[in-house]
Every structure is written in C-alpha cells, then in structure tokens.
C-alpha cells in the first residue's frame, strides 16, 4: 500500500510540472497565428467549426470556434453570431462584443481554450487581442429524465438520475430546499476530467468524514472515471472485501433521504449513479419503499430481507452439510423423501450443488445481457426446461432444485444490487467449507464473515453499526421500522454533528 | 488511515469478561458440582460467584492506582523493570497455555461429538483461520465480537429450558442434604468456572468510562452466574441425582432429547453454534498472550506473534496428539495457576499498594 | 504491509490445500439407516440382534430391509450388518429399540445397551419397547395396509403416550429409571398377534428383571399416580354400585375425559415406616353414559366415581407393594422430604416401599355432562 501511495505522489507532481509548461503558452494577438495553433492542436477533428467574420460593431477581424455536436447551435446562431454580425449599438464607446448570453468569461492561455472547447463552449478570437472570449453554449447529448430501470420501487418519486451532473444536482436540490445543502465540485481524471459534485448538509455532516472523502478523491490519479462504480472502488476503505462499503443509487429521492441522514452524496458527471457514504451494513437492506409504506408492512418486509440474506448465504451450504454429514438432524419423514430423491443421483451433494448454482448464475447473467424480451425466454428455458430435465435425467435431486430456487429468490429480494451480488459470491466459499466440515465448516465460515464484518469501515466509520458496535437505541430502524415520529435521531454511524432531526409527536397523542 | 487508540465501551468490557468466563467449563460443570455436593451443587456456584466478584472488585481497586496502563505497566511502575518483565512473562505463559488448552479442547469436543472422522490437527488448522482474522485486530474489534456473539448465542439458552418439561423438581430437595461441607468442596471446582475475570487487568486502561469498571465486572460475573445456574439446575432436575455423575458432559446429553417437527438431534446444531461461545473465550485469551509477548519484544504489531502462537499450537497437536485426559490434566494445572493469578495476586498487590499509600501519607 | 499480505495469502493457500485433502464422509444415499434395532435371546440364550432399514431404490421390490443375526454385543453386530447391507450401516436414526421379553427375564441385561449411551451417534430419543414374544415376529412383519413398520411403531407408541396410556420410555428415560434408586423402570409393551398392537406397560424391578404387566387402562392409573397426564386422558369404568347391568350391553358403564388432574403426595415417616398420602383432584367431563339420567344425580355420580377410582388405585398400589417394585417413584418423594430416613434404606428401597403405608383419596368434580342430558 505504501508503495502505491508513493507512486501516486510522484506522478501527481509530474503532471503539475507539465501543466505549468503548457500554461506558459499564452495566446498571441494575431488572429492568424491563433487559428493556426487551434488547427494544429485539433487536427483530425472534423467536428471543429471555425467561422471567420467581421464584427459589425468594431469592424475587426474575428473567428468563432466551437465543436459542433456538443454545443447548442441555436444559441450560437441567435445569441452569438447574430449580434456580432448585425448589431451596431453605439451606446458604449468601448468595444465589448455584446452577445446575449448569461455566462461570458475571458481566457488567455491555450489549456483554458482547449478545455473550453472540449466542454462545449464557444471561443471568440479577435484580431489584435491576446485573449479570447468564451461563451457558455454547451449542449451535450442527454436523455430525458425517466424512472430508473435498475431500481424499481412502488413508493417514491418516479424519477431517476441521468448522465448530466447538473441535472442530477438539480434533482437533489429539488428534494432539499435548504441553504445548508452545499455542493463542492472537484475534477478527477487526467484525460476524462470528470466533474464530481459532493453534496451534503453543512450543519449536519461531520466535517472529518467529509474531509476524509475529499482527501481520498484528491489523491486519485486516473485517466478517467467512466462511471460511479469505478470511483467507488477507488475510494472505498477495504477493496479486498466482498461487501460493498459505499451505496450506489440512481434515485434522487433516495439520495436526498441519505443526505438528510447525514451522509454525503457524490454525483459523478456522465454517470447516472451517485455514490453515498459513509454506509453501514443495514442501509443496504433498506429501500425508500420502507418509508413510503405503513410501518408494520415495512417492518415485515425488512425482516423478510434479513431472513433472505441468511437463506441466500447458508441454505446451499446447509443442504450440503446435512446430506453429507449430519443427516440425523433431518426428521424421519423428510429423510424418506430426501433419501428417495437423492437415491438416483450419481454425484456427491457438493458437486450437485455447484452444478446447479453455477447454472443459476449463468442464467441470471444471460438474462441481463440479452434484450428484455429474449431475457424472459432464457428464464423460462433455464428455469423450467433445465430444472425439470435435470431432475428427470437423475443428475440433480428435486430437493436441490428447490434449494437453488429458494436461494435465488432470497438473494433477489435484497434492494441493493451490489449487496445481493456480494451475497451470491459469499455463498460459494460457504459451500466449500460445508462440503469439507459440515456444520462446523459453516460456523467457521460464519465466524470469518463476522470477524470481517465487525472490523470493516466505511469512510472510517464502523460498517457494522448499530450491531457492532452495539447501539440498541438505533434498532428502531434496522430489522424493523418503527413509526416515522419515533425516528428522531440520525444514525450514529454517520457521526452527524446535528444528531436530532426535526420531529413531531403523533397527532392526538395517547388518547387517540 | 488514522491510528486512534482503541477503546472499549461498557458493554464491550462486560461481554469480553463474561465471554472469557464461559467456555468449555459449562459442559462439565453440572457433573463436577454434583460429584462434590449432589444436587446442592448450585449453592456452591452461588458461593463461588461471591468470591469471584470480590476478587474482581479487588482487581479494579488495584488498577485504579495506575489507570493509564495495564497490569504490566503497573508492575513496572511500582516494582521496577525486572519484576515488570517477569510479570509479563508469567502472564503471557498463563494466557498462552490457557488459550492453547481450551483451543485444543474445542477441537477435541468437535471431533468427539460431530466430526469423528476428522483429525484434530485439521480442526485446529481450520479454527486458526477465523482466530487469526479476528485476533490480529485490536481490542475494540474483539470487544465488538464478544458483544455480537453474546447476543447471537444467548437464544441457545432456550434449548436448556425446553427439556425441563421432563424435569423432576423434587431432585433439588432437600436443601443442604449433607450440610455445608460438600458444598464448600464444590466451591473448589465451581470457582474454576468463574476464572477469566483476571483479563480485567488488561481491559481496564481501554475502558472509556472508568468509573463504571466495578459495576461492569459485577454485571459480567452475575451474567455468568445466571447462565451457570440455569444450566446446572436444569441438569439437576432433568437427570436423576444417581445418574448425573455418569455422563461426562451432561449439558449436551440434556440437549440430545430435543427434537422438533422440522429438526431433530439439536445437539449437533447446538454444538456447531457453541463454537461461537468457545471462540469468545479463546480469542481474548490469545489476544492477551500476544499482547504480552509483543510488549516483551517491544513491538507495536502483534500479528507476527499471533501467527507463531497458532503455528505452535498446530505443531504441538501434530507432534503430541491430544487426548481428553491429558488436556484435562493440563487444564487443571493451569486453572490452579489461574486461581493464584486471579485471587491471591491481586490481593497481595492491593495490600501492598494500600500499605505504600499509608506510609506515604504518614511520611507527609 | 504488502509482504504480510503475501504471507497471509500463501498461508491460506497452504491451509486450503491441506484441508481439501480430508473430505472423508459418506453422503446420505450411501448409508443404510437403521430405524429399528432389536435385542433378543434365542432358545439357547444367545444374544440376537436385528435391525431394519428403509431401501430408497425404486427397483427394489420391498422398501424395507431387515436382518437378524447372532452377535456378541450390539456394536459387534454392526460388522455383520455391514456384510449384508448395501450401504454403511448407521445407528444415528434408530427410532425404536425393541427388547424381547426373554431378555428381561434375566437380571442385569442393561449393560448390553452400553454402546447406545457411550456412542454420541445414537439418539437418546429412541423409544424403547418390549416385545411380548420373539422380536423377529415384529421385525420381519410387513403389514400390507400400514406405513413402514418403524414409522408405524413410533406413531403407535407416541399416540398412546399422548392419550396417557403408555409410559414415556425413551432411552434417556430408561437410563434415568435404571439408575434412580427411588424408582423402578417401566416400559411400554407390544405384541404381535394378527397385527402388531400396543398392549400395556411392563414393570421391571431394580435390576431390570421382568415383574409384571399391566394393561392400557391400568397404565393410565399408573400415570395418574405419577402425575404425568399428557394431552388427553379418558377412563371407562363400570359403576359397580349400580348393580349388574342387564343384557349383553353393560349398562352401568361410564366414560369420562379427565380435563385436569392434580396429584399431591404428602410424605411423612412414622414408627419406622414411610407414610404416603395421595390426594388426587380431578375435573372430568362425561363423554359416555349408558345408564339413564334418572338413576343418580351429579353429586352421587361424583362420589361413585371417586369410590371406583380409589379402589382401583389402591389395588394397584397394593400389587406394586406385593411385588416390591416402585414404578410410581415414591422413593423420590421420600428422598426429598424424609432424606435422613431415606438415606438409611436407600440400597433396599424396594423393601421399605413394600412396608410403607400408602393411602389414596380421590376428589372428582364433574364439569359438564356433555351435549345431551
């Protein structure tokens, strides 16, 4: 690790040096030289547009340059070219090249110009001026705001993030109208120059946690952040863990809810997913639906999810362990049916289990990769045909098919995709341990899991809270969810500086 | 990565101590006390609790004299470097042997009850993996582990309540069958089961709220007492007083009769889960061992020592295949040493410190 | 830090490699799971062990295989069974342990079962049942109209326990009763006539030797004395004080459900004898009454039932005392309340029991007469 860090530092400083060198390249005051320079920098760039013109106001030679495709051409025609070409307003003596746009700035170095062009801005060079005007005209191709296809909920807003950071930030702002909602912008990536916006409530979030997150992002030196998952993997605490330590979501209402709990949301430009931290184990089992539906229903579903968690990890292992080691724990009547269905199977239980579990994982992956309509066919072929045929051919037992199906369903009811994938992965070592040592193996595996779980941290905050360290008071919103008005405190695991939320007692009080 | 000084909350402190006290003793406790005092044995357990609590409180009193450090620092501070080193060696030997004995006993039990076809050394190797992963961290993590495991395993006590529908409560009568003498004899054996609170010597400096140290250790002892009482009395009313001494581990035999519609032979499941209970005994002991040895070697990190400890345990098992008798003998020996460390030693130091303070006051 | 990860990784690989080399276990389908174990003596008093286990194979004509053979001990028999059966024979799921009555006619047969208690594989919930006749009759009997024998036997015994007719006699309980000095063992008994049927309870003496058999109704009385009523307890008794019922139908019969029974024993020691006073309080619902309503009112009926029960219970206790057996466990009461005296007679409690005064008083309350008057 230390070795890595050293490497990061040296490369960061060399990048700075080269930047300084470029900075010395100032613009020249001759339009021709500038245009030549632009053309040499952006050679093989067919979408570069250079429009030479004479400014009516001053009569000077000038050129408007932009990259078509990522700029708003209407704005350029109407608000830049039109006033420059035709307007002749003599009210002011000084030539200030009036255009009707909100955001205008000036730049005098080549790197700035380059950045501006690549960001979809329009650059105006004027003969005799050693600086250029930059007009804010970007319009990247983007999709409209839709419900997220990955995270589907019953309750909550049917709005998902899209690929524009500005839109995503706006969507969160829409949920939290508060001046304490602060946004810190950072840029990451040598080539990609990904804009990150860190959103938090200034009077709630713990400044140390925020600083830790910023530090980790600052230390990054990568080509580009393609999506939020890449960034999450770079900044999480323990990359060797199977468990996800940062939340990823595509839903602004969920992100806003987490900000209100004292967490920090990092919006990654060009990615429809945002990163939320610090996370604890239990947040991966919560969904926005839990708060939208009535608390008894929500509590029941929560319990179901935790139950599903254990089933998904341990059921195949328990099957292997009981069949190969501890058949005596099976009640007699069940033993008869298990025995009858196992009798024809030529493989030991662990091979049988591995065959089926791998088949299931392949089916699942195939379902994702295929278009939705064919995906369903795969499900049917896999589920019914293979399952049925395998049993009839005597390759796997009926019980095994039930076990596999149960595990699959159990792992799918966990709202976080990252967590449910992690669980499916953990299942395999458990199966190996169970096939070697039976129940003892499972317990040892469980012990390893717990040992890992209690020492894990997310942005230096304990991951296991409120189970380890134990905080019984916060169990109101872990395995069950008590009514809204009883949830007055923000979780300790975020170390929020303002612990108590705005809250009220239920209407009517005791006598209702 | 910041290296904050590890601390313990009150529950972590309580359950660490309680966890070390539980362990393998509880399986044989009903037989051992019944051998000495018949069905009055449980009174002996209550008496041992009184003694253990008194000794625990003395330990806290001793530690109050030097709240910043462990007993090793205290010894060095009051008695000089050499006695400090001697104390460190003694403690590390004590904890090391204790940890190894129980660790091996755990493997022996598994082999005897669930996996008769697996070699003991393979089980030791298997159990080493989680042990290493947890003990290599700091005391806070161990504290969290103890707390979590306690709440994960405390429901297993229900298993001891269910067989009581076959219970014959008349077995407990009359009280004081043979007078007090056999009960006092049973205190001798029952006291061993309370051993383990001496790790308070090492936990005290890490505790966040030092003023609650006494209360915490009393709670830990009482919790242990309750669990012992439930199991012992449960076994006494379940078995006939004439047969209980025949079973080696009556606590497990009691569970053998449990069966539900969906699961039978619960003792197997129970035993597998019981590994958790034993682990909260063994892991803190291992931690204490490597804590002492790394202090001795002047190293910050105890990982290397831990690896060595586990390797030594493994090699020992390969070279000298353990048997129950040999293991029990070792346990008896180390428990007697433990009695000295847990009862006599704190008393002596406490007396010494009191005298020292009096002399100083008079000098002033 | 990097180096230590390398060490860790290699350590794990080493461990994993070592651990994988040790998977020596037998999966379920390769086992022959004994469900009944039989212990008997043949005519020449040789130990005969038999077992019966299910066959999962669909090609097999019968779904159960049974073997019987001579062996020195129970454990020793396993090697012969292994020679006969398809899979490895395992004892972990034995449901019923059948003991031939011939075995019980000899003293000190109990050590034969030593392995059952010593070996953790055995279940202690196995029902111990005495067979009145050769064990092989039951073992090799394949009823055409019933589930497999082991299941059937276990259900029959369990049902009778629930109905308070059979004593609980698992291996664990037998062990307790064999070692308990204040009680003598009792076991359920079955018989193979046309079918295998539950017939009652056998009573053994301190050394395990057979003494007496009582039928199902009397075992219910035994259980009342032991205060071990289970889910349901129904008694059918004739009201002898109403005179002989006429005709072929015994018209003086009455049946009642005992909904609650509380048995108290007062223990005292007088003039060198133990004194036990039973006070049995019952709440009953009449379930069947063959004589007309007008003949007795409710109070009288209660008195009559009390008298009948008292007679039967006292007769039974007298019989126990005559046989010098204490299946009720009065020795436990003596130990709890008269420890000093009990200690003196402990080694020969059966003698002291035979001499002690036991009297029974019954208090019956009729809660309901049922749906018709």
Automatic annotation (TrEMBL), chain A:
Keyword Isomerase: no
Alphabetical list of PANTHER family matching this protein: SPORE GERMINATION PROTEIN
Upper classification of the organism: Bacteria, Bacillati, Bacillota, Bacilli, Bacillales
Keywords, comma-separated and alphabetical: Membrane, Transmembrane, Transmembrane helix
Signal sequence bounds: none
Biological-process GO terms, alphabetical: spore germination
Record's bilayer topology term: Multi-pass membrane protein
Renumbered residue ranges of the record's region Disordered: 489-512
Coiled-coil stretches: none
Family: Belongs to the GerABKA family.
Protein name in the entry: Spore gernimation protein
Record-annotated membrane-spanning stretches: 303-327, 395-417, 429-454
Entry keyword Transmembrane: yes
GO cellular component, one term: plasma membrane
Localization, UniProt: Cell membrane; Membrane
Main subcellular location of this protein, as a coarse class: membrane
InterPro entries reported for this sequence: Spore_Ger, UPF0353/GerABKA_families
TrEMBL record, chain B:
Assigned protein family: Belongs to the amino acid-polyamine-organocation (APC) superfamily. Spore germination protein (SGP) (TC 2.A.3.9) family.
Gene Ontology biological process terms, A to Z: spore germination
Localization, UniProt: Membrane
Pfam family, one: Spore_permease
Signal sequence region: none
Taxonomic classification: Bacteria, Bacillati, Bacillota, Bacilli, Bacillales
Keywords, sorted A to Z: Germination, Membrane, Transmembrane, Transmembrane helix, Transport
Main location: membrane
Topology versus the membrane: Multi-pass membrane protein
Record has DNA repair as a keyword: no
Source domain of life: Bacteria
One GO CC term on file: membrane
Residue stretches spanning the membrane: 12-29, 41-62, 82-104, 110-135, 142-163, 183-204, 216-239, 268-293, 305-324, 336-356
Protein name: Spore gernimation protein
From TrEMBL, chain C:
Membrane topology category: Lipid-anchor
Assigned GO CC terms: membrane
Pfam family, one: Spore_GerAC_N
GO BP: spore germination
Family label: Belongs to the GerABKC lipoprotein family.
PANTHER family membership: SPORE GERMINATION PROTEIN B3
Localization terms from the record: Membrane
Principal place of residence: membrane
Record-linked InterPro entries: GerAC_N, Spore_GerAC-like, Spore_GerAC-like_C, Spore_GerAC_C_sf
UniProt entry tagged with the keyword Transcription: no
Domain Spore germination protein N-terminal: 25-191
Protein name, as recorded: Spore gernimation protein
Annotated NCBIfam families: spore_ger_x_C
Organism whose genome encodes this protein: Mesobacillus campisalis
Top-rank taxon, per record: Bacteria
Domain Spore germination GerAC-like C-terminal: 199-370
